[in-house]
């Protein structure tokens, strides 16, 4: 567990006024990293830190030698903490750096936020047991939770090329689907387009091929977390997923938030990691005392929807559900320890999705498939519109934040994406 | 289909003597691309073309501006053909370039062959129907070939970080496995380590997200083919693969050959693409007349094994099986058209595995799982040793070549890998 230090003091204020607003996701206690391109187009992609509604350009502030995010991410923990300390001190009220760093600030509104780093391998886990059970019931009514679920942090490899940053727009995908009454599959636009509410772990320090990362050190290899929307075409998935797992059902688009909230920023929000009574205890490579004490994270996750009609009538996004990452069956450290136990090498810039994080109750499910019980119970929005699955023009926004008595609230910013009509 | 031109003339000879040897994989008709580092260590990684037992350094020969293989691979077809023509002419007997290009040659024995390009996304298909049927019988005796197989070119996303080049050595992986008589899984070294004989398609020209690649143009997006050994831990796979597919069973190591044999070099070896009588015809996005006429490739594939004992007693690799890529159920063009039909974007450097290519008869299966019928019928080697699955110290080599009356034989070089004992 990362130690708490003065960068976490709730009393800290910044000389950037917007960072002191009660509702900002980016107070001086957060300091998430990302990449941006100034909208004036004169400069190439830069790396920066979000502070209120501003971005501190790290190279302009003399805090980085290059704009290579992988290098920054793969620094040793002590270096990362030193950098965080330096940034925190420089952005605090009364800092001697204010005069010079003020020139290294760019308003977020004048920048295009990019993917926070080049994504290398993308792995998607399945750590939400409420999701796994609910989806399992729909795909395999007799056999919802398979015998391996409580032993193995189940995962599959995903597609990196189609991962976009918040603001991503994608065409409704077409692929083969086969309805129960049909003799043969048909190529057509998906009729069961869904979102999946996930967090993504951005790997910082990698490991050499053959070297398993022990659970005790696993979290040091995580650089931070982002929000992840793992868009899914359920009808495509149902037809294609046997025997090798989802493919075209998931690889047309995945959206992440632009700011990586670091493990250091999340340090106050650790929670005990527990197993429900009666469930098997994990194998030793997935378990230790420190992990039990601190292995989970208390992060509130929310999904919002804005239909085209809502947009046209000036209605803001409406919240569909809220869940908490504390409820995940497998933790960040367990995902990393499991992924590498066979010697598989992780690299800076790898992304590990947590899988859909649903709350135990169906109305707080992290996907429409679960929320509507496979399409049987439509969601009715405040303006009277109904949804079973996503319609063209729908915009889905995910948000996350951490709150704890005695600490400043920090947030993840937004992960938004919009469905465009299928191409003819 | 790529047109034949003078670069394919069987009568061409090279001023590099070893390229004219009857048994070379790299005559002047082949000209595969790869990357290498001179063993003297003075230079960084370069790109080159294999010719006999030599490498032509493309930048030293004035044929490339940089050592960025992705740029070379993503050139338009006409540019690629022009480059091939220029290299072919310069390496022919009597070429005016001989005097200058002789200085751009480096003996292969003095170079370390690297991955032919940085691998971006890796997708592994399942196009070998004999393999799918044989493996399906072992995993699901009642239901070997699932209903989607003859409609969907089944695939899953694989792991890029652990792909190595021929010569790769890896530790026997440990992971959770659960034997039938056990109450709980155990973390232990795999007892059912296998190889899988595949070809890999290296993508050259990518596509923009949202743009499906039509079957008629699909093959233009392939830059060339390599050999691929998709090492697999069968006991790990059996325990973990439901419901999202293989993960730790495959991501510890995959090995490819160092030279990309281009689609231009393979042009003489196209074959008609056919469906067995009674099988469904593919959907329109996977089918057209030209594809039926030329969509397959006649490529002989072979697997060889050398045990530690054979190595100690001076015995060469022994051939275990031979199959032909002509027998694949889905073609290169169909893999590309299917992968992108939902708008998924491919990029230069993506690798698409064909899945295991087994011949119809069990003794020519492309994996030990099939070859031994799940471990029931051990393979007996000439020195009396037996194998059910791979043992520590085993070296597996794959080779491939194309032969056709009236054309020069071309080969793929070697794809070799060695199993090291599990780490304690």
TrEMBL record, chains A, B:
Which leading EC class covers this enzyme? hydrolase
Q: Which UniProt keywords apply?
A: Calcium, Hydrolase, Magnesium, Metal-binding, Phenylalanine catabolism, Tyrosine catabolism
Region annotated Disordered, chain positions: 354-376
* Gene3D superfamilies found in the cross-reference section: Fumarylacetoacetase, N-terminal domain, Fumarylacetoacetase-like, C-terminal domain
EC nos: 3.7.1.2
What residues does the Fumarylacetoacetase-like C-terminal domain cover? 152-419
Q: What is this protein called?
A: fumarylacetoacetase
The scientific name of the source species is: Polaromonas aquatica
């Amino acid at each position: 567990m990362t130690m708490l230090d003065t960068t976490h003091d709730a009393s800290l204020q910044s000389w950037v006024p917007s960072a002191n607003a009660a509702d900002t996701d980016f107070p001086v206690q957060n300091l998430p990293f990302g990449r941006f391109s100034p909208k004036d187009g004169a400069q190439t992609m830069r790396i920066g830190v979000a502070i209120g509604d501003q971005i501190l350009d790290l190279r302009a502030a003399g805090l980085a030698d290059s704009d290579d995010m992988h290098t920054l991410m793969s620094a040793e923990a002590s270096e990362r903490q030193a950098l965080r300390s330096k940034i925190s001190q420089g952005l605090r009220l009364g800092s001697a750096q204010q005069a010079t760093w003020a020139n290294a600030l760019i308003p977020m509104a004048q920048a295009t936020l990019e993917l926070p780093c080049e994504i290398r391998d993308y792995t998607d886990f399945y750590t939400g047991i409420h999701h796994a059970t609910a989806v399992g019931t729909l795909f395999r009514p007799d056999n919802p939770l398979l015998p391996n679920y409580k032993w193995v942090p189940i995962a599959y490899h995903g597609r990196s090329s189609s991962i976009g940053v918040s603001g991503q727009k994608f065409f409704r995908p077409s692929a083969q689907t086969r309805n129960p009454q049909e003799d043969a599959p048909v190529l057509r636009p998906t009729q069961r387009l869904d979102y999946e509410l996930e967090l993504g772990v951005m790997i910082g320090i990698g490991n050499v091929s053959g070297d398993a990362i022990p659970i005790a050190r696993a979290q040091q290899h995580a650089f931070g977390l982002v929000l992840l929307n793992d868009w899914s075409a359920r009808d495509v998935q149902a037809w294609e997923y046997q025997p090798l797992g989802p493919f075209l059902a998931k690889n047309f688009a995945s959206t992440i938030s632009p700011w990586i909230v670091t493990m250091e920023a999340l340090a106050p929000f650790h929670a005990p990691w527990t197993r429900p009574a009666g469930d098997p205890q994990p194998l030793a490579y997935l378990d230790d005392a420190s992990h039990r004490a601190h292995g989970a994270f208390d992060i509130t996750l929310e999904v919002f929807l804005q239909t085209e009609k809502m947009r046209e009538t000036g209605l803001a996004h409406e919240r569909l559900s809220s869940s908490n990452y504390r409820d995940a069956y497998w933790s960040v450290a367990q995902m990393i320890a499991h992924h590498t136990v066979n010697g598989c090498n992780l690299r800076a810039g790898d992304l590990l999705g947590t899988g859909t994080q649903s709350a135990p109750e169906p109305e707080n499910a992290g996907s429409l498939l679960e929320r509507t019980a496979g399409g049987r119970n439509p969601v009715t929005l405040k303006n009277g519109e109904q949804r079973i699955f996503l319609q063209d023009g729908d915009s889905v926004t995910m948000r996350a934040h951490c709150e704890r008595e005695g600490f400043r609230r920090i947030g993840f910013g937004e992960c938004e994406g919009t469905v465009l009509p299928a191409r003819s």
